[in-house]
Structure formats: C-alpha cells, structure tokens
Amino acid sequence: MSEAINAKGSVQDWIPKDPGKKPPRYVPKHMATIRLEQKSNKQAWKTMGPAKLELPSPSNYLKKNFLKQLLPLHVPPNPIKRAVIQTADAHKQLLQSAGLIPKYIVKKDYGEIPKYLQQRREAEQQVRDDQEKLEKLKQATRQVSEEERNAALEGLKKKWHEVHREYQGLPFILYTPSQKGRKVHMEEQLTELEKHIRLLEKFKTIYISDADAGGSP
C-alpha cells in the first residue's frame, strides 16, 4: 500500500520565485502615436458635442416672401374722393370732412335712446310719482284742531294716572304667572302712553288720516 503525500500550502508555493527581480512593465509599441491621438481628440471634444459640425448648404433655405411671390399681385382700387364746391371761387371740400356723408348711421348705438336721456326720464318719473303720493296723502288726511289735541292729551294723561295707580297697587312679591304677566302688560301700557303724551306736547300741528279719525279712541 502506497503512502499518501499530504502537501501543505497552495500550488503557488511550488513555483520558484526570485524576490530580487520584477517582470518588466508592458509598453505598447505605438505608445507615442496613441498619446498624440488622444491629445488631439481631447481638445476637439471639450464641449457637449463635436466642435465642428457640418454647415447647412446655402441652397437649403426658405427665401423671404417666397409664398407672396407665387400669389398674384393684388392692387386695391383707388377710391373716388367726392368733393363739394362751397364758395364762388370754386373752393372744394371733401364730402366726408364737410359732414355731408351720414357716418353716424354706422355707429353701434344708432337709433337707441342715450343713457343720459333715460336717466333724466327716470328722475322725472320719480318726481311725478312722489308728488302723486303726496297729493293722495293730503287728501286722505286732515289737521287736528287745538281743541281735539288738548282733549286727546288730557285723555292720555288721565289714562296714564289710572294705569299707574293700578301698577302701584301690585304686591311687592309676585308669586303667580298671571301676576307677573299683568305687571309686564301695565309697564308696556305706561311706556306707550308716555310716548303719545310726549308726541302731542311736542308738535302743535298734527295730521291724521280718515281711517284713524273714524276708528275707536
């Protein structure tokens, strides 16, 4: 039975080495030519693209007004300028500048009522309506005489004293809702009577309508 040989390490250990010498570096044969070519290309490609592009041909362009030259020449006719003789020495003036041509008929608002006239009509109509209302109001009202005013004033004061006397007769503490409601009603009556009394005392001339005159006092 043969004995097995156990080799330690790797295959590289079996290769003889010379630690004193290094293998020579590889240098291309045409190194000078390569460097010269790289330098020339580097100078040309410093921009985002090639520095030199093919220029367009002078024949590949659209001439100015090329389409207009193909279309037929259109010359508008010269309009006839009509004039009018105004004086004995044959002084002429164009109809348009003399105001003899109705140019106003071509306006957008031709035939419509101007705004200032519409506003004036509305203002006049408002004045007429106010006058009619005032006349109707005068016809439906009449002036209260001095005797009627004094009688009404005395009646209001008498009514105020009666309500005030009843108001003072209320108990100091109100227990029921009816008592509280009566107190509120009396306070409203006193306020309304005081308002009418001040009105009659302040104004000497008073007008009332026929409906108010025929109503209950």
Automatic annotation (TrEMBL):
<keyword id="KW-0966">Cell projection</keyword>
<dbReference type="InterPro" id="IPR027012">
    <property type="entry name" value="Enkurin_dom"/>
</dbReference>
<dbReference type="Pfam" id="PF13864">
    <property type="entry name" value="Enkurin"/>
</dbReference>
<feature type="region of interest" description="Disordered">
    <location>
        <begin position="1"/>
        <end position="27"/>
    </location>
</feature>
<feature type="domain" description="Enkurin">
    <location>
        <begin position="116"/>
        <end position="208"/>
    </location>
</feature>
<dbReference type="GO" id="GO:0001669">
    <property type="term" value="C:acrosomal vesicle"/>
</dbReference>
<keyword id="KW-0963">Cytoplasm</keyword>
<dbReference type="GO" id="GO:0005516">
    <property type="term" value="F:calmodulin binding"/>
</dbReference>
<keyword id="KW-0175">Coiled coil</keyword>
<keyword id="KW-0206">Cytoskeleton</keyword>
<feature type="coiled-coil region">
    <location>
        <begin position="113"/>
        <end position="150"/>
    </location>
</feature>
<protein>
    <recommendedName>
        <fullName>Enkurin domain-containing protein</fullName>
    </recommendedName>
</protein>
<dbReference type="GO" id="GO:0005879">
    <property type="term" value="C:axonemal microtubule"/>
</dbReference>
<dbReference type="InterPro" id="IPR052102">
    <property type="entry name" value="Enkurin_domain-protein"/>
</dbReference>
